[in-house]
Specification:
19% strand; 5 strands; 214 residues; 6 helices; alpha+beta
Length: 214
């Protein structure tokens, strides 16, 4: 009976391991685990594909995660991250990499792994593509910049011509439309209106750039 129990435990452990492997390999997010010597203890398929963008080759279980053929900037950056995690720090880092002609952004989580005695024995890592979120934030920043420019135009550039037009209307002789002097404010209003039209066109152009116009 004891033999049967041990066999069942082994089968259960094997099934659990297989289920876990299926789970981590069915996500687009890279997941990997390294020991204190920077050797990969476990990783999923997405990690192998993802790391290729950095160093040109796939890394797998048993490989040194800081492959010595990689770019020095990459090596220094990731070595520092692993050192921090192995010293008990939990944090995220944002990485950018060029895939074809496009820049992709990824957030990488570094988490210390503890044994039953609460001693750090490695680092678990999880990466996620945040390119679309990053693009959305950049778009919002561009729109905010354009809105500030529009607000400046409306509060400064528009105010001057409007004040000029209002002032010129006070010079017009409404009691005698044939008054020759009425020509002066009319010409001034015409000139200022053209200047105002240029300013309005600038506001419309900037509004179109950020999609405020239908």
């Amino acid at each position: 009976m004891e033999h049967i129990g041990i066999k069942n435990d082994i089968e259960k452990a094997t099934a659990d391991e297989q289920n876990l492997r299926v789970l981590i390999n069915n996500t687009d997010d890279p997941i990997w685990l390294v020991d204190k010597a920077y050797n990969i203890v476990a990783c999923n398929r997405s990690f192998k594909k993802w790391v290729r963008y950095f160093i040109g080759i796939e890394l797998d279980k048993g490989d040194h995660v800081l492959y010595n053929g990689l770019d020095k900037a990459y090596f220094d950056k990731f070595e520092m991250c692993y050192v921090l995690a192995l010293n008990g720090k939990t944090f995220k880092s944002v990485e950018d990499m060029k895939v074809g002609d496009e820049i992709r952004y990824t957030t990488v989580s570094f988490n210390p792994v503890l044994d039953e005695n609460h001693k750090i024995i490695g680092v678990s890592c999880h990466a996620r593509d945040i390119t679309e979120q990053r693009k959305h934030l950049l778009k919002i920043e561009e729109q905010n910049t354009a809105l500030r420019e529009i607000a400046f135009i409306e509060s400064h550039k528009v105010r001057g011509p409007v004040a000029t037009i209002l002032g010129l209307t006070q010079l017009f002789n409404y009691n005698d439309f044939s008054d020759p002097l009425n020509k002066i404010p009319i010409e001034g209003i015409t000139k200022t209106t053209r200047e105002l039209d240029i300013i309005i066109r600038e506001v419309v152009r900037k509004s179109n750039e950020i999609g405020l116009q239908p």
